[in-house]
Fold this protein.
Amino acid sequence: MPQPDATVDADAAVTDALPDAMRAWRVTRLGEPADALSLDAVPVPAPGSGEVLVKVGAVAANFPDVLLCRGQYQVRPELPFTPGIELVGTVVAVGGDGADAAGVAGIAVGARVAGSKIGVLSEYAVLPASDVWAAPASLSDAEAAGLTVAYQTAWFGLHRRAALQPGEWLLVHAAAGGVGLAAVQLGLAAGARVIGVVGSEAKAAVAREAGAELVLVRGADDLVAGVKAATGGRGGDVVFDPVGGDAFEASTKCIAFEGRLVVVGFAGGTIPSVPAGHVLVKNYSVLGLHWGMYPGVRPDLVEQARAELTRLADAGSIRPVVDHVVPFERAPEALTALASGSTVGRVVIEVSP
């Protein structure tokens, strides 16, 4: 991977002359986003072999960005570094020369792409060509910016790990968040009956609008009783859990015979222990999902997921929900809003209109 101080060179295929410098938000010290981030002028990076340079249109804020600022993410880049893990933009250069420069892995200069990689909260970003894909034409930049991480995470969780079937009951925690709304929409598209769990009545309205048949408010409703009542005592066939902690524990009490509980993350702050005895007695499965491993281990499945998400987006079956958009200069506000837990769907940073 080229270093941040590399500039675009003659070995890259470029549509127009590129600037020598760009603006990039960088974490210069660890802390909350408002304190950690600095808007700096840095050289435009150059794509190496197998890489593309993207002029960034929009970046979707993700909770890992907040954790990166705090130094709490599993990846801890050396200071200073640029956060941002998900974007939409236009390919302006590809690595290599001659035949290699005509296109990389089917991605040509001028292509509108979505993609994911740490370090994209900047005006230009270099990504491996394998980490970008054609953004669905049916989605705006603000919508497409939030498609890669949340929707691929939900797709792999529901289809690859849990093998969700039509007519099954799907229980989604944090159903008004970015990945939770993706799971609700993809569950409905698969023919499942969806129960959503949210943190407030305001968020409940968002989950209902997305199509959840029943929405339970955490702290106000009895989750276990509500799920059992809705399912006629059966329980949830598939549980999609990006929260952990109490959400995981409650899910084990209302999961169906041969149910599948997919562990997606621990946004609630507590990593639960798997009750092996309970798993045995109730005959259910606990499945881990680390979406980030698939591009390296099973890229064929990533291509399958991307094709299906594009089809569903173009058919109107899925559409990322955007809470609000902020200009590039106010990017720390987007991460602060996300960290507060008050947002629904995605908060998007517009880099270039």
The two ends are 28 Å apart (CA to CA).
